[in-house]
Structures are given as C-alpha cells and as structure tokens.
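WP5 quarterly update. Target: GPN-loop GTPase 3. Source organism: Sistotremastrum niveocremeum HHB9708. Length: 285 aa.
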Amino acid sequence: MRYAVLVCGPAGAGKSTFSTSLLTHLHTSKRTGHLINLDPAAETESFEYQPTIDIRHLISLEDVMDELGYGPNGGLVYCFEYLLQNMDWLEEELGDFDNDYLIIDCPGQIELYTHHPLLPALVQNLSRLGLRTCGVYLIESQFMEDRYKFFSGVMSAMSAMVNLEIPWINLMSKMDLVSGTSADPARGRNGIRKRKDVARYLDPDPLLIVGAEQETSNPRFHALNQAIVQLIEDHPLVSFLPLDLTSEESLESVLNHIDFTMQYGEEEEPKEPADMDDGDFPEME
Ligand SMILES: Nc1nc2c(ncn2[C@@H]2O[C@H](COP(=O)(O)OP(=O)(O)OP(=O)(O)O)[C@@H](O)[C@H]2O)c(=O)[nH]1
Ligand SMILES: [Mg+2]
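Structure tokens (predicted):
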C-alpha cells in the first residue's frame, strides 16, 4: 500500500515548510517518504529536498504563461488540466514505491480546493493508482487575530473537505508565533495570541462571530453571521490540530493523526523472524 499526504491550504500557510519538516521527521523516525511537488510555479531554490516527482518536469507555469499568454491563475488551471490528461506520466513517475509516504505539496490558490473539479479528479486518479490519500489543510495562526478572517478560513477548510471527500486533517500552522503571555508586544488585535485563548479557535466556537459583531457594532451583516453560526453548529466538521514546527512532539502528534486517519500499516503482516534483517532492532544489538 502507498500513502499520499495531500498538503493543501491558502497561499503562504506554510505548506512547503510543513512538507519538508514532515519528510525530515519521517527520515529521523527511520521511515521512508518522498516529496512530490505539484506547484508548477514553485521556485527551485525553495526546496530543501529535491522533489522525487515534480510537475515542473511535465509542465511549468512560466512556459504556459509565455507560450499561451495566460495569467498566473488561468495558467495554473491549465497546468492541472494538462496533468490530468497525462496521468500516465504521473503513474510512471510513481513507479513502485511501496509502503512509503508520498508528501504532495500543492499550490496556494484557494479556488483549487474550494470549487474546481481538478483536485477531486486528481484524488480519484491517485486512488485508481492504489494510493490511499489523506488531505492535510493548513491555515496559519495569524488568522486567529481577526475573527472574520478566521471564520473565512474555517469555511474554506469546510468547502475543501466537502469538495475532496477524503480522510482529512486541519492544522493551525505557525503556532510558534502564538506567545505564552498577553504582555507580548506581538500579540494580535483580538489579544488571542495567548495559548489559553486558543482552544476556542482550535475547536471553532461559532459564538466568536457574535462577539466580533458586538465589538464592531455593525448590524449590517447580522443575518449572514447568524447563518454562519448556524452552519457551523449544524455541521461541526472543522477542528484544528496545532502545528508548531519548533517542537518535535507537535510534529509527532500530527504524524500520529495522519497515520491513524489513513490507517497506516493496518494491512501489513507482522514480520516473521526469518524475514527480519540486521538492524531491525538496533537497541537490542
Ligand atoms: N514562524 C513560522 N513561519 C513559518 C512557518 N511555516 C512557514 N513559515 C513561513 O511562512 C512563509 C510561507 O511559507 P511556505 O512554506 O512557503 O508556505 P506555502 O503555503 O508553501 O506558500 P505557497 O506555496 O506560496 O502557497 C515563509 O516565509 C516561511 O518561512 C512556521 O511554522 N513558523
Ligand atoms: Mg509552497
């Protein structure tokens, strides 16, 4: 069985940084993982690890923009359509990795996740190729500084979950920027850059919108805000795991959740003593 972690989320949420850190963490845990770059606009120098598979070897955004005269967003859609028409390329590139994690770093155009049919089609193709896929959706901790922005992040995560229909985990990235004390000069506008206030955001409390509405005392959006509160109460699909890349425990906890969500290793047979190699139990040697 092969496993794919589809790393999605808005621009700058920390997808590429998380992909690299997860790969490093897998390596230190003596597990195999490979990086797949699906961002046709990625800068080569932005990767700490050379991607094992790179969409830019099939098609690059720069070429599409130069040769077809598209802008960056239309160009991206063209690149994904081209990828879907050339799934045999991906199939060949995937080769026969077995029991490995393939970490797929996606582009940051939000519309790709919320309403385009391109990623759902890609996920179906991955499933056809025998990959079990888990979506990991990142929004960054700064979103918690503005409640309206935060709820737009919650709604985008929800649309992506509904659009892609795969096992799913939402992460609140860049938690190292959330400080332990309210006296921190960098604390946010809502004063929520305090760890003790974060729980209401990790498990979104829709009443936070009501609080924001009272603060701004703008009744214009009352009916809309009520509808959003109702939607989140009726469909409590979204909650976030905190991701702090400065902490190994945080990464380990996220990896455990991904393993559990994808039922990693469930189909593996226990090794027979005869199958074991030198080095399987280094601590006993
Ligand atoms: N403090 C902090 N900064 C981070 C973290 N993760 C990423 N960043 C910074 O956030 C910026 C964007 O990170 P990327 O990993 O490139 O984000 P991305 O989601 O891949 O961005 P796009 O591919 O452009 O959509 C960079 O300047 C990173 O250094 C984090 O955990 N903590
Ligand atoms: Mg990126």
